[in-house]
Amino acid sequence: MRPSLAKNSARLVLSGLLCVLICDIGGVIGAVFRSPNSDDAIFWRQQAESYLKRILQYKSNSKGGAGVARNVIIFVGDGMGIASLSTGRIFKGQLAGRSGEEEVLSFDHFENTGFSKTYNTDRQVPDSAGTATAMFTGVKTKYGFIGVDYSATETNEVAASVSNIMEWAQAVGKRTGIVTTTRVTHATPAATFAHSFNRDWECESKIPAHLRSKTKDIARQLVEDAPGSKLNVIMGGGRTAFGAAIPDHLKSSFRFNGSMEKTCVRQDGRNLVKEWLDSKNGTAATYAWNTAQLMNAEVDDLDYLMGLFADTHMSYEQVRDTSEGGEPSLADMTEKAIRVLKRKHSNGFVLMVEGGRIDHGHHQNHAHLALREVVELDRAVERTLGMVDLDDTLIMVTADHSHSMTFNGYPNRGNDILGFANRPDKLPYETITYANGPGFQTHRINDSSNEPSHLGTWIPVETMNRSAIDYRHLSAFYLGDETHGGEDVAVFATGPGSNLVRGTFEQNYIAYVMSYAGCMGPAKRMNEGCAYKQWVSSGAETAKRATSPLLISIVFLVVAKLCYLF
Questions:
Q1: Which helix (H) or strand (E) holds 177?
Q2: pLDDT in tens, 513-564
Q3: pLDDT digits (tens, 9 = 90+) for 373-421
Q4: Considering only CA atoms, which of 170, 118, 522 is closest in space to residue 359?
Q5: Is-contact 235 338, C-beta < 8 A?
Q6: Which helix or strand (DSSP H or E) is residue 375 part of?
Q7: What is the pLDDT of residue 67?
Q8: Which of 419, 443, 435, 438 is nearest to 480 (CA)?
């Protein structure tokens, strides 16, 4: 390099460094003095990036960042709070004939853990739409909002839209998929592809008539708009929202109550499953609606797979039809999804797996059903661990929120976790109870009953049929549906980038962990390893040559100019 060019390059480097320093200081000052209740996308992205920078300062993360993940898999136990983890672990052991307390969940061994703060921007105790949006977009939002920031209304829904992990993944050539035991249009899966300020708009019949020309229902967004239309895997329930319901005799014989059981029935005559298949013309795509069709699908050669295995939510694992004509398990769906997504000559994949019916069991105080769902999510994680390489796959397991379930009393070790919390010679009460929910009414003596009771208006719990599939544990306050809990939830992580999961953080930070480790989205630029890790084409040498003094000068010149303009 000529002396004059070297001198000019040095000047540009110094000026650029000074500008970057000033910009960084300004950004810090802005983050510090920005109102904590501004709640816009800028605030939450600054907050997540700030926490990421802090974690990167730890020695364990100081060299080469925290690794690069070719694949990212996030498991969400909907409603799987700390109490659900503890009781679910015991329940798993007791199903296997053991005492239970010493049992281990498949993700208990993950080397990194942290706690996620789950509140919505407008609620101390959140819902799944706002929490899923936080986890998958990096932006916290209001109760009931999906894929939009706090400012969304019926007139600016599009303007308020925020990008998500599936968009980030598809932009860098990764394959993408979602698996859930709820309707695929339900709040948690919807946050990976949809933008709506009302989580209930799963099909057009739920949207007010005057708004139907202004907004798309969630099912249509999945089929018609990216990133939903580009998902390689879509599996769960919810056929009615797509206009693809099946005959009554193929539905579950069990009926459960509660608002979570209500579904959205499409009334415009469209069959969105057929439209989805038509849109994939020329590619290897298939649709499955029962276990046999899924298990027989040549998933290793498929480009696209859609499986809708129930008209509404899929059945609880406890009552699932396990025949070939029934519904597949969460573990089976997860295995098939990974086989569709894994390709040697690809840039990797991103997969979201939800154990959604943990939440629904708790909402109706069906503790036994909820804990069985925890065990099934554990099976799905265990199955996954046998299929991927943790040298290139980041796996995270978390919950979107907790529930009002409590785990209490002084039961003996090995006592039935669904049983009584005290010694037989004392007045019996249950180890698992709820702060609110329909279980209150279940345990009340009917007003017309003359049955005497030493508990006054309460039925002695030891006289009840506690083995019934629809049995409800006692709640302290009556509600038709039990509420969520507001405490922090656990986050477990293993694989590249997992050491970024530490401490207690805002829930939207989870998206930034996936962004940073997966070399996609807003945090990609912060991971130096992304410039050298090429999964599809070899570009490492090109990346190394790009650090020449001349190119550095050009980069800093651009930065200096931008700083001057702003």
A1: strand 175-183
A2: 999 999 999 999 999 999 877 666 433 333 333 334 444 444 444 444 444 4
A3: 999 999 999 999 999 999 999 999 999 999 999 999 999 999 999 999 9
A4: 118
A5: no
A6: helix 367-385
A7: 86
A8: 438
How buried is 435 (Cβ within 10 angstroms: 0-12 exposed, 13-18 middle, 19+ buried)? middle
Q: Which two tokens stand for residue 275?
A: 């439209």
The region, left, alpha or beta by phi > 0 then psi within -120 to 50, assigned to residue 238 is left
Catalytic residue status for 38: no
Residues 6+ apart with CB under 8 A from 433: 405, 406, 408, 439, 473, 474, 475, 476
| 457: confidence class by pLDDT, cuts 50, 70, 90 | confident
Q: Which two tokens stand for residue 3?
A: 């002396």
Whether residue 253 contacts residue 315, with contact meaning beta carbons closer than 8 Å, is answered with: no
Q: What is the pLDDT of residues 20-38, one digit of tens each?
A: 343 343 333 333 444 555 7
User: What string of H, E and C letters represents the secondary structure of 477-523?
Assistant: CECCCCCEECCCEEEEEECCCHHHCCCEEECCHHHHHHHHHCCCHHH
Catalytic residue among 9, 84, 106, 128: 128
CB 403: neighbour CB atoms within 10 A?
A: 29
As a whole number of angstroms, the distance between CA 440 and CA 443 comes to 6
CA atoms within 13 Å, Cβ hemisphere of 37: 2
* 383 membership: H or E segment, kind and range: helix 367-385
Strands 405-407, 349-355: pairing kind: unpaired
Extract the tokens encoding 431.
Answer: 């180890």
CA 54 to chain CA mean position, Å: 24
Give residue 311's pLDDT.
Answer: 94
Integer CA distances (angstroms), 108 to 35, 382, 449, 484, 518, in order? 38, 11, 48, 24, 23
